[in-house]
Design brief:
Elements: H1 2-13, H2 31-39, H3 51-71, H4 81-92, H5 94-105, H6 118-124, H7 127-134, H8 136-145, H9 153-157, H10 167-178, H11 184-195, H12 197-202, H13 207-215, H14 223-236, H15 239-250, H16 256-263, H17 271-286, H18 301-312, H19 317-331
Helix pairs in contact: 1-19, 2-3, 3-4, 3-5, 4-5, 7-8, 7-11, 11-14, 14-18, 15-16
């Protein structure tokens, strides 16, 4: 994993190794669910791995998850989180995987780890507007079938780790997502649907048939081509262009400020900034100013153009990842992860 190597090098340079402290399991509220999920994760380990080695890695997997959650009490475990963590464990080992997973959990994965799935559903709402721009015929067919977007839920929250059987493809996608905007998995999902256009249009136009087809992801996808296409789509149709449409068409009850968070993510990717803003908004709602929103400045056109261009250059993922890591490390000393009681 190219991008993982950049992360690892940067973590070493600033001496940010996480101490692998002992984890209290018995009284941990997430332990039983984590244990069940990890026990069901046998296929995520290399075929032919000795049972003793796999069982040892499963114990480390449980510890990483509980350790990250224990250090960040504002985060909530969700089923599928272990699919992401095990990928980094197999590539990096327990110590470095803990450091990287903790950083990602307060950044790229942050919205999946809220107490409810509202923000996760909100992210899924970007899928159909992208498909509509890329292939209106497929979009209209899916709308008529009323299939919705739930077929892509496991793709999104596991970064496709749960649905792909070849570990090489999983780590290639993780490289891509590490280097890009947190919404890139949705663009990749849209590209997969577009790639399967003929299959979709040949399917019976009903929810059950279309959902069954789309939820069974092919294992022989042309990944490099699809990755390049997803990067191109991000440049053509950035989240800022899709946000209002996604809000109006699929999430009428969502606050507009939620979408600003995504629009500003590349420029304002500090987890503490997002958390502080959410806390201020909650406090404002409790007071007399229930309708007030925290004002956020929009990035200039020039800066947005540069940002999108960088995200679109998938052939330069290493450089993009290094930039993201260096920026994140600059924020690291400023993080305050104890913002909520």
């Amino acid at each position: 994993m190219l991008c993982c190597k950049f992360y690892v090098a940067s973590l070493r340079n600033v001496h940010t190794y996480i101490n692998v402290e002992e984890v209290e399991r018995e009284n941990n509220k997430d332990y039983n669910q984590v244990l069940l999920d990890v026990q069901r994760s046998l296929r995520r380990f290399p075929p032919g791995m000795p049972d003793e080695q796999r069982e040892g890695l499963q114990e480390e997997l449980i510890d990483i998850i509980l350790r990250v959650l224990g250090r960040n009490t504002q985060l909530h475990y969700y089923q599928g989180y272990h699919d992401i963590v095990v990928t980094f464990l197999l590539v990096l080992g327990e110590r470095l995987a803990t450091a990287l997973v903790e950083k990602l959990s307060t950044h790229h994965l942050r919205d999946f780890m809220d107490p409810t799935m509202d923000n996760t559903k909100h992210i899924l709402n970007y899928l159909m507007p992208i498909i509509e721009r890329v292939n209106p015929e497929v979009h209209d067919f899916m709308q008529q079938a009323e299939v919705g977007t739930i077929f892509a839920l496991s793709w999104l929250i596991t970064w496709f780790g749960h649905v792909l059987s070849d570990f090489r493809h999983v780590v290639r996608l993780y490289d891509f997502f590490l280097a890009c905007h947190p919404l890139m998995p949705i663009y990749f999902a849209a590209v997969i649907v577009q790639y399967r256009e003929d299959e979709v249009l040949d399917c019976e136009c009903d929810m059950a048939s279309v959902h069954h087809l789309l939820s069974q992801i092919p294992q022989d996808l042309p990944y490099e081509t699809l990755i390049s296409r997803a990067g191109d789509l991000f440049v053509q149709f950035p989240p800022s262009e899709l946000a209002r449409e996604a809000a109006q068409q699929y999430s009428q009850q969502m606050a507009a400020s939620t979408f600003k968070d995504f629009d500003l993510t590349p420029e304002q990717q500090r987890p503490d900034t997002v958390l502080r803003r959410r806390r201020r908004e909650k406090q404002a709602l409790k007071g007399a100013a229930a309708g007030a929103m925290v004002a956020t400045a929009q990035p200039t056109t020039a800066r947005r153009f540069v940002r999108l261009a960088v995200m679109g250059l998938t052939v330069a993922l290493g450089a993009a990842a290094l930039t993201l890591v260096n920026t994140a490390l600059e924020w690291a000393p400023k993080l305050d992860l104890h913002l909520f009681p």
